[in-house]
Design brief:
Elements (H helix, E strand, L loop, with lengths): L1 H10 L11 H13 L11 H21 L4 H12 L6 H7 L4 H26 L7 H29 L1 H9 L3 H22 L6 H28 L3 H9 L3 H11 L6 H24 L1
Helix pairs in contact: 1-9, 2-7, 2-9, 3-4, 3-6, 4-10, 4-12, 4-13, 5-6, 5-11, 6-7, 6-11, 9-13, 10-11, 10-13, 12-13
Amino acid sequence: MMPIAMTVGVIFYEYAGYLTFLIPYLVFVMLLLTFSKLSWHNIRITRLHIWLVAIQIFGSLAVYLLFLPLNKIVAQAALICVLAPTATAAPVITGMLSGNVESLTAYSLISNLMVAVVSPLYFTLFGAGKDLSFFSSLLMIFQHVALLVVLPVLTAYVIKKTSNKLNGFLLKNNGVSFYLWSISLIIVSGKTMQFIMNQSDANAHTEIIIAVVAFWICLFQFLTGRRVGRIYDDTVAGGQGLGQKNTILAIWMAQMYLHPLSSIGPGAYVLWQNVINSYQVWKKRKEL
């Protein structure tokens, strides 16, 4: 079903823009359904989370310096592909893969808040000279993080503590998140293709290089996250935490603070990560 969703999105990419407004609502409902299953007392910071945060912070700096001699725009694209926080939908996929949702939820909050603090500093050092102060940048990024991550967590917590009936309804209909993710996949794939198609042909060579770099970074982060997660008996959460990125926020940050063409990086990354996620979900459902 996942490859079909991506294919539909790519084919009908011209119409994706009309449905983009649905994404925040779909993500909110998916997270609400996922968080309704959480054991809140199991949410805590672990050594795995510290390792993953360190990889995000120092890994993004490392790839920037690695690609800087080749091309500054490619270096910025690589930077944002690693620095980008964990996707808001990552706990949903982790649940589908029978992973530790509590662990991934904790890391999603840590990752997003860390990026809200660290990214303005990086953009000041490596950005395109936008006239925004560190604190202005921090506030704008934090607002995006709060709306997409913190609000669903708080809503799920309040419902679980105040309404057993409503929480039971969410638990009973938890499987709906799979179909909501399929709809989101169609919209995001189409919007990404629309974005890529609207870029200037004069930059085609750079765009191809960025897309290839994004693929290898995506694959490396999924494999590295799983390998580190395996050490702490948390393989799925490690892979999804490091590999599945909040590309919508990443594209916005790239266009806002870096060279606009660098946003092709997270734009291509969303396609690669959805291919990997689709394969993982398909394999898991086949096993079940």
